[in-house]
Amino acid sequence: MIEAVGLTKRYGAKTAVHNLSFQVRPGTVTGFLGPNGSGKSTTMRMILGLDTPTAGHVTIGGHPFRKLPNAPRQVGALLDAKAVHGGRSARQHLLSLAQLSGIPARRVDEVLGLVGLQDVARKRSKGFSLGMGQRLGIASAMLGDPQVLLFDEPVNGLDPEGILWVRNLMKQLASEGRTVFVSSHLMSEMALTAEHLIVIGRGQLLADMNVKDFIAANSAGFARVRTPDTEPGLAEKLTAALSAAGGQVAPEPDGALRVTGLALPRISDLAHEADVRLWELSPHQASLEEAYMQLTQGAVDYRSAVPPQVPHGAVPPQAIAQPPGMPPQGYAGDPPAGVPGPYAGQPGPFPGAQPQGAPVPGPYGPPPQPQPHPQAQPRPQAPAGPPPAAPADPTQQHSEDAR
Ligand SMILES: Nc1ncnc2c1ncn2[C@@H]1O[C@H](COP(=O)(O)OP(=O)(O)OP(=O)(O)O)[C@@H](O)[C@H]1O
């Protein structure tokens, strides 16, 4: 298990990570999400002993990485796939890592086969594509058959077959009882890969919960209702009836109606009372991407000049409070100065965080109201995994000194 407590990292005046506390448990793929510059890589580097926290601490199996007995044999990481000597072949690269950690050469050939690089094993890695580099990085991480694995953007540059392979690999590793912590910007992929999410924005914890709860907590479900196309005027009649009953009704591009604020049975009854036949009445839930965009709206440091639309089914924009010690910054899309965000003035160490264990809104009820957030959600203990065997050398990745 990885455990961070009050983890903080400042680079001069810049606070990259602020008072971050979370646990990454074995037996589950835990996704690590956050906008660009939110502190994911910094957090991963601190976990791997490559950066020293300004305050707080982070441990793996109860020990700081640097004090782990035979750390490289217990923890594997992919931080930067380009951190490879380009003049060496894939096999030479892995062999040198293996030799440093006392891993037999046959394991090198095993992992090359595992990641599908056996045919190019003797080619210089500088000719590798982005996807091949990612596979080599994953091979390095898995070289020691470690119990704890960290992957920073592992599917970056992979083709659809490669993405599917990484997804299955992560799940397989977790099902073996390993701790798998993976960052990604691809929400659709995270929704398929991770069971649990840790979301940060501007270095602060925004959410620590399972994917299903995360979507429910950060988006409102809706109903799609369709009246017969053959009978003009029915949609308007139904809209009037639903609106009078307190529902919010919006047209969908295909002519159906999107209804929030009313439960499905109530919509059905109201349609019946208004003598409106229905061709469709179906429940819908926002996607992880919609929920994520909604949660992190106030915590995005870098965005295009044209801000994205707030997705349908998502809760209203939320402001992420600035942590103490962080310089005031102006962000496109932030609430105007002086307008308190919904979390302003709320107690607790993570003012921008989402509640865990808070009542999850009904799928067709009003959007959820933000709450102060306890920092850890109780999760069932995963079964113990196989003992760690051999190394991957995260210190091959760029270090604090190198930055
Ligand atoms: N060595 C450093 N010196 C100064 N500032 C740094 C250093 N490393 C990171 N930062 C800053 O800390 C913040 C967090 O950076 P970090 O790379 O951890 O974010 P990230 O979430 O991994 O971003 P991305 O998704 O773009 O990879 C950024 O503002 C970054 O510029």
Automatic annotation (TrEMBL):
Domain of life: Bacteria
Comp. bias intervals (Pro residues): 348-391
Keyword set includes Cell division: no
Annotated GO MF terms: ATP binding
Sequence ranges assigned to domain ABC transporter in this UniProt record: 2-227
Signal peptide bounds: none
Chain residue ranges for the region called Disordered: 307-403
Keyword terms of this UniProt record: ATP-binding, Nucleotide-binding, Transport
PANTHER family named in the record: ABC TRANSPORTER, ATP-BINDING PROTEIN
Family, as annotated: Belongs to the ABC transporter superfamily.
Name the record gives this protein: ATP-binding cassette domain-containing protein
Native source organism of the sequence: Streptomyces olivaceiscleroticus
